[in-house]
Amino acid sequence: MTHPHALRATGDGNDLDELKRFVVAHALSQGLPADHHAPVLDRITTDTGDAPGSWAYEWIRAGDERDAVGATLAASQYYVMGRFPYVDGPGRARALHRAVDAFDRWRTTEPTGIEAETVDVDGVPVRIWTAGLSAQDPRPLLVVTGGIVSPKEQWGVLLPQITALGLAGAVAELPGVGENPLRYARDSTRLFTALLDALAGRADVTRTYLLALSFSGHLAIRAALTDARIRGIVGNGPPIHDFFTDATWQRGLPAVTRNTLAHLVGVPPKDVHAHLHDWALSDDELRALDVPLAAVTALRDEIVPPGDPDRLQRHVTDLRLLEHDDVHGAPRHLAETKAWSLLALQRMRPDADPAVTERLVAAVAAARRPGPTP
């Protein structure tokens, strides 16, 4: 599927040093260690084009090398990095196509239980990955959504772990990300509603939980205010209020964040703040949230201002926060964040298996223990 605004040019491209710095957290989240991704970054000398030395070409080249030896999932992960932060030309379009194709081949050749599904969102087909759906034994549903730069292939690998928790799972993209052809807008909560409507009967969507990372956490909270089927939310670095209303903070955003938002909402980068200003969640809306919310926050977050987690603490009734001394997404605390997020989800579920909860408590404790001194 070709994204309707995928090939919009970006002029001179992204700031290469900034791009390399931000992609590292996403590489680590997919289990690509530094000695794997660092040589790729070293070969990249330009953000634009699709020739040797370009961003897309070198990541695709690394993915092709993995694919050639049968490491299909790893290949998909390298291709995902090749379309980062969004598709802006033929090179990144090629990377996205290969990422989807490699993930599709991996999930059908390994015992993953992952299936492709197409959801109708107001007449627009949106492709997602699912697992654990059954009309005979519908399970509670966990929907996973990434942020503004991460396609569903980045998080689809979580689906077998989701089914192991006794849940059905669905992994989707924010509008405008990856294969999702919708435009990202204030009312994009329709994505969640349409997804639950489509999966009803094969999952118990009246017991739906959202694992919503970064910007999708903001959308998840808004969705939960109007859809009673959503019973809990786990987020990581969600923008809430000040991100949208503070013009001074917005002027200091990393260029890659501003440019990606501009691409997704369809305005020039200079107009992003004015376009997003009324997306802020009000204090009344936060007080009206009647489901549990668990969120990971970062003390040195360069994208979400500190006033946003503070606002959650002041106004959300049922809130759990995990605070890291880290940057957005807490890339240096991935193991703890993953275990804590799953534990928070378990604690929201009245049907949770106590033995699984105990294992996750142990996993959080293990992740917090300092490693061996070199």
How would you sum up this structure, described in words?
The chain has 374 residues and is an alpha/beta fold. It has helices at 16-29, 34-43, 55-68, 72-82, 90-109, 152-155, 159-164, 190-199, 215-224, 242-245, 247-251, 255-265, 272-276, 283-288, 307-315, 334-348, 354-368, and strands at 115-121, 124-131, 139-145, 168-172, 203-213, 230-236, 293-298, 319-324. An 8-stranded mixed β-sheet has the order 1-2-4-3-5-6-7-8, with helices on both faces. α3 (55-68) runs antiparallel to α4 and α16 (334-348) packs antiparallel against α17. The longest helix has 20 residues, at 90-109.
Helix fraction by DSSP (H/I, runs of at least 4): 40-55%
- Kindly state the mean pLDDT as a whole number? 93
Ends apart, CA distance between termini: 48 Å
Per DSSP, the total helix count is 17
Q: Strand order across the biggest sheet?
A: 1-2-4-3-5-6-7-8
What order do the SSEs take from the amino end to the carboxyl end, as H and E?
A: HHHHHEEEHHEHEHEHHHHHEHEHH
